[in-house]
Structures are given as structure tokens and as C-alpha cells.
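README, section 4: Worked example with a bound small molecule

Sections 1 through 3 covered apo chains. Here we extend the same pipeline to holo records, where the ligand is supplied as SMILES alongside the sequence. The molecule in this example is adenosine-5'-triphosphate. Nothing else about the input changes; the structure line simply encodes the ligand pose together with the chain.
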Amino acid sequence: MDNTVEHHLKERIKELNLLHNTAKILQDHKKSVEEVCTELVCYLPPAWQYPEITAARIIVNDQKYVSPNFAITRWCQSSSIFVENREIGVVEVFYLEERPESVEGPFLAEERALINSFTEMLKYFIQHRMDDAALENAKNSLEKRVNEQTQNLREINVNLRTEIEEHLHTKEKLQSYQQQLQQLALQVSLIEERERREIASDLHDHLGQALAFVKKKMLGFRGENIFSGHNSTLDEIITLLNQAINYTRTLTFELSPPVLYELGLESAIEWLSEQFESKHEVKIKLKFKGILPTFSDEVKVLIFKSVRELLLNAIKHSGVKSFRVSSISYANSLRISIDDSGKGFSLVNDLEYDADKMQFGLFSIRERLLHLGGQLEIITSPGNGCKATMVLPNKEG
Ligand SMILES: Nc1ncnc2c1ncn2[C@@H]1O[C@H](COP(=O)(O)OP(=O)(O)OP(=O)(O)O)[C@@H](O)[C@H]1O
Ligand SMILES: [Mg+2]
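The generated complex, written as C-alpha cells:
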């Protein structure tokens, strides 16, 4: 074979060897950019025409990797490494001594092609590594954020639990206070009624009886000679005694109507209406539908007192003079309503007890009814009258 041809062939083999070795090294995905560059820089000189006077350098991100005999000279062939349009390094081959001129200084055209191919292969490897690193970074920061969020959520969860527990605790406390309050409203009512009953029976048994006795005596004096000429005075005294006896009886009834205990709720409400009609000059229409259930004295008293309070409210606040009391008895509940077509009011505070205004009527009715398992319904608005309905379970407890 011709010497030149053989020389050319040897050169091409050296070049192919470099590309082959480069490909092999770059295939190892476990290797870092530093390891790859350190190895590859030593494979570069043997692939050039004059290996014994050739040195090489690879620069990547300011990191320099050089072949053993490295020195910078003016005979240099180089190829820049671009990643995403940014120059991140360079591959350089130096001849340490002068050699005859060729296509690119002393370098061959094939060597230009070789260094470009080498740089391109290295560039893809670096790009992959950078992508991997970016991916890893993104993954790590995502994991970090997920962990942070999880931790935050955990803390929020713990706080929420504590808050819920506190709320439940407060709610239980409130419920217990409310029950105590209802119990108290009931007790106050019952104690008041008991006192009224005692005063009423004292009035009846002592004052009433005493007055009746005095009246009887006075009547006896009428025919006596000793009082002749004083008959008009006696008559006056007897009239006064009659008034006192009547007043005592009315007071006794008003304090605690015996009719409630003797004849029941319906008769007591009828009696109450008559009382109010004559005392306050109003008209009260009664309508009872169905037979009222029999309640214990205590519940009867509570219902009676509530009807009295609602009627008094209508008389005091409605501005009209006629009212209606009606009751409907269902299988499971009893509804007693007191309604008027007066000025009504706005239910802004949902019947909350207003300590400043000292309004206790509706509030205490509601609390008493709640305690008995019932409720107070009020339909009213300014200018549209008022209908207050007590709803009670038909059977006690
Ligand atoms: N039938 C009604 N018509 C118009 N307003 C009413 C009627 N019933 C109640 N109200 C209004 O509701 C308020 C609350 O009534 P509530 O019975 O609780 O208190 P009060 O009657 O003012 O005082 P208390 O009953 O404690 O003596 C009344 O002050 C009144 O303004
Ligand atoms: Mg009232």
C-alpha cells in the first residue's frame, strides 16, 4: 500500500478510536461530569496527527481538566460547548511544537470534524446530567414543600382538634347552664305560686273568717235595744264589712285561684278572662277545641301563669282591647294561643332576656316551656298584631 494512503488510514483509525472510546465512557450513566472529563481529556491527544507533542484541555463551568503533558501554546484547535444557547465550556487541543501548515494551521480538516463531533457528544452528556440535576432539584424541593405542607396541616389539625374540644366543652357547659336556668325559672315560678297559695289561704282562713265572724256579730246587734238609734251607723259598718269581705275574697282568688285546683285549667282560664274583662275593660274571646289533657298541679300552674302573662302582655302592649285565647289539643301536643291585632313588635333578639330593660315575661315562659319539653312560638311584626302560642307535650315527662 502507498505510504500516504496508509498514513491517512491510520489517522482515521485513531479518530474512530477516540469516538468509540468517548461513546463507551459516556454510556456509563453512573459517572459524573468531573469523572468523564478527567478520563476523556487523556483520550484526546492520541487521536491527533502528532500524539507525542499533543496536549488537551476541557473546561466545563470553569472547571479545568488537562492531559498529563499540558501546556498552552499558539498552535491550538478548539471547539466551544454550548448548552441551551449558553457557552458553558470549551475543548482545546494544543501542539507543543510547530508542525507543517495544513487546513487549519497545522491541524487537518478531519481533526476539525473530530473535535466538533467530540464536543457535541460531550455536550449531550452534560446536558443530560444538568437535566437530571434540575429534575432531582425540582423533586427535592417538591418533596420539601410537601413535607412542610404536611407538617403545617398536621399542626392545623392539632389546633383544630383542640379548638373543637374546647368548643364542645363550652357547649356542654352552656347546655348545663341553660338547663339550670330553666330549672331555676320553673322553681321560681313554683315557689311564687306556693307562696301565693299560702298567703291566699291565710287571707281566707284568718282575715276572711274573722271578717265574716264580725259581720255576723254586727248583724246580731241590729235588733238590740242598746244600739237603737245607731242603726244607720251599724248599716254603714256592715256595708264596709261586706266590701272588706268581698275585697278579701277577690284578693284570695287573684293570688291563687282555687278554681284552678278544683275545676281545672279550662275553668281557671275562663275565670281569669272574666277577671281581666272587668278589671281592664277589655273583651276576651275563648275557644277550646278538644278536651284539655289532665296535668299535674305544677304543670297546670305553669300553664295558667303563662296564659296570664301573655294576656297581660296583650293588654299592656298591644294598644287594642279585644283578644282571643284558643287551644287545640292534638294526640301528642297541646297548643294554647293568645292573639291580638295590635301593634306587634319585632323579634330581633329572639326573646333573649334583656337585663337593662328588665323584661322577664316572655323569656321566663320560654325557659319554663323548654324545661317541660315544649316551646313558645311567637308570630309578630310591627303593625301586624301578635300571636303567642305555647306548645306542650300532651303527656307529662
Ligand atoms: N302582645 C304584644 N303586643 C305588642 N308588643 C308586645 C306584646 N307582647 C310583648 N310585647 C313586647 O315584647 C316585650 C317583651 O315582653 P315581656 O313580657 O318579656 O316583657 P314586659 O312585658 O315588657 O315586662 P315583664 O313581663 O317582665 O313585666 C314587651 O316589652 C313589648 O315591647
Ligand atoms: Mg310581660
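What to look for in the output: The pocket of adenosine-5'-triphosphate (ligand 1) is lined by residues 313-314, 316-318, 340, 342-345, 359-363, 386 (CB under 6 Å). Helices lie at 3-27, 33-43, 109-221, 231-255, 258-262, 265-280, 297-317, 361-371.

Section 5 describes how to batch many such records.
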